[in-house]
Specification:
By secondary structure, the protein is mainly α. 83% of the residues lie in helices and 0% in strands. The protein has 9 helices and no strands. Helix 8 packs antiparallel against helix 9. The longest helix has 35 residues. The protein is globular, with a radius of gyration of 18 Å.
Length: 230
């Protein structure tokens, strides 16, 4: 039964990994500073979902919860936001944000790895639910709140900036909707149970993937037309 319950986060992990690979491939064909960061952020999203699938199927432990918390609650949105900073901000400012993000990644990683974990809270989890954030002590929650808040803000700002500039309006609108759906997925658990989290994340990832693919195709068409014009 629990193995069946793990299907949703497992599919989410595979989808995020596929999007990460697609974005990494796009970066090799037409490099921009944001693409490797987006690819890494999506890969971390996949790792968090995979850790969740493992925890649901085989039971949560300290290691699986640390991986889930570090990659999902702390790092993935921050790196996606750092990638979007290169769209929303002047290059010198975006580089500063990038440096600050790397520093935060190191700080959050060390904090989560050494923070005490309440095994009794982890053991009490059933079904699709993940262990509560309070299961990890120390300053881990500060990193999670700060990095998620800044990352989400940068993601939204990057998409809105491109829309206002009328640059790839359709793809960036899809990216914006995808980010918002993923950000709100946790709120849905209050109304539809824990499965709503994974369904919301999956829908958000699909919309996000459509936006990324659309943006890549628009960029590819623009490069081809400019080459023909020359």
């Amino acid at each position: 039964m629990l193995a069946n319950s793990a299907i949703l986060p497992l599919v989410t992990a595979l989808l995020a990994a596929a999007l990460a690979a697609r974005m990494a491939g796009s970066a090799t064909r037409s490099f921009s500073p944001g693409k490797p960061l987006w690819a890494l952020g999506l890969l971390l999203f996949a790792a968090a979902s995979a850790a969740s699938a493992y925890g649901i199927a085989d039971g949560w432990g300290a290691i699986s919860f640390r991986v889930y918390y570090l990659t999902g609650a702390c790092l993935c949105v921050a790196l996606l936001g750092a990638g979007s900073a290169f769209l929303a901000l002047p290059r010198p400012v975006a580089l500063i944000v990038f440096g600050m993000t790397l520093t935060a990644v190191v700080g959050a990683t060390v904090t989560v790895l050494i923070a005490p974990v309440d095994l009794s809270l982890i053991a009490s989890v059933n079904g699709l639910e993940a262990p509560p954030n309070s299961a990890i002590a120390g300053h881990a929650s500060i990193w999670a709140i700060g990095m998620n808040s800044v990352g989400t803000t940068l993601l939204i700002a990057g998409a809105l900036t491109s829309i206002v500039r009328r640059s790839r309006v359709g793809p960036n609108a899809a990216l914006l909707v995808g980010v918002i759906v993923i950000a709100l997925a946790g709120t849905l658990t209050r109304f539809g149970g824990a499965e709503s989290l994974y369904v919301g994340q999956m829908i958000g990832l699909i919309v996000l993937g459509v936006g990324m693919e659309w943006s890549n195709r628009v960029g590819y068409a623009a490069r081809n037309s400019s080459t023909v014009a020359v």
